[in-house]
Amino acid sequence: MLDHLTVVKHPLVQHKLTIMRDKETSTAGFRQLLREISLLLAYEVTRELDMTEKTIETPMQTMQAPTLDGKKLALISILRAGNGLLDGILELIPSARVGFVGLYRDEETLEPVEYYFKVPEDLGDRLVIAVDPMLATGNSSVAAIDKLKEAGAKNIRFLCLLAAPEGIKRMEEAHPDVPIVTAAVDEKLNEHGYIVPGLGDAGDRMFGTK
Ligand code: URA
After folding, report:
1. Alpha carbon nearest to ligand 1 atom 2, residue
2. What is the atom index within ligand 1 of the atom nearest the CA of 201?
3. 192 CA from centroid of ligand 1 (Å)
4. What pTM does this model have?
5. For ligand 1, what atom is nearest to the CA of residue 193?
6. How much distance in Å is there from the Cα of 186 to the middle of ligand 1?
7. 63 annotated among ligand-binding-site residues
8. Where along the chain is 5-phospho-alpha-D-ribose 1-diphosphate bound (predicted)?
9. Does 195 show up as a binding residue in the annotation?
10. CATH match for 5-50+68-193 among 3.40.50.2020, 3.40.50.1110, 3.40.30.10, 3.30.70.20
11. How many whole angstroms from 13 Cα to the centroid of ligand 1?
12. Catalytically active residues, by annotation
């Protein structure tokens, strides 16, 4: 079992994250770094996948060699910023099924409202990795995971780039069975719900919008 919270302190992850945080980093640079960092985070979030062995012939002899046990994966991107993490992870796990959850925040109730939900049918048979770069208030992440559980998901991990203590607490309370993997835990949220020091709006930084 992964710990409830894993902070990936690998030097390459931390170095790339620092460049991503820098407001002078271009959209192209940000996107490229997100792709690279997502490969390294994917390595961590898949650390404890079940293994089995199979018989192969090397040029020298027969051997029993370790291989993934074929347990199926589903990667779920929480729109829109989740797509930036998704692309890199798919390079590492090209056979994973992919789903999308779109939520927006109702400006009056401040509650997340679903506008898109398309996930693989057999979620209950898969290890589900939900991805969203920023775990801020946790409201949309919790709502997305609620929806995934309603759709049958039983074994879920949550992968993000940056987390705020408030979001981690909210996730731990709502979904204590969902391990979180992140590159860093920042100081706090500001009054607008942004992570500080953070990196700004991840979607805007990766897509060049404002
Ligand atoms: N979403 C972002 O993109 N950035 C934050 O700081 C918080 C939520």
Report:
1. 201
2. 3
3. 9
4. 0.94
5. 7
6. 12
7. no
8. 80, 105, 132-140, 201
9. yes
10. 3.40.50.2020
11. 19
12. 105, 109, 201, 204
Confidence of residue 69 (pLDDT cuts 50, 70, 90): confident
The ipTM of this complex is 0.95
Does the annotation flag 137 for ligand binding? yes
Alpha helices in 98-181 (DSSP H): 139-150, 165-174
Q: Ligand 1 pocket, 30 CB below 6 A?
A: no
- Over residues 22-49, the pLDDT tens digits come to 999 999 999 999 999 999 999 999 988 9
- Give percent of the chain above pLDDT 70: 100
Q: What is the pLDDT of residues 167-187, one digit of tens each?
A: 999 999 999 999 999 999 999
Would you kindly state where each structural domain of the chain is located, as residue ranges? 5-50+68-193
Predicted confidence at residue 2, as pLDDT, reads 87
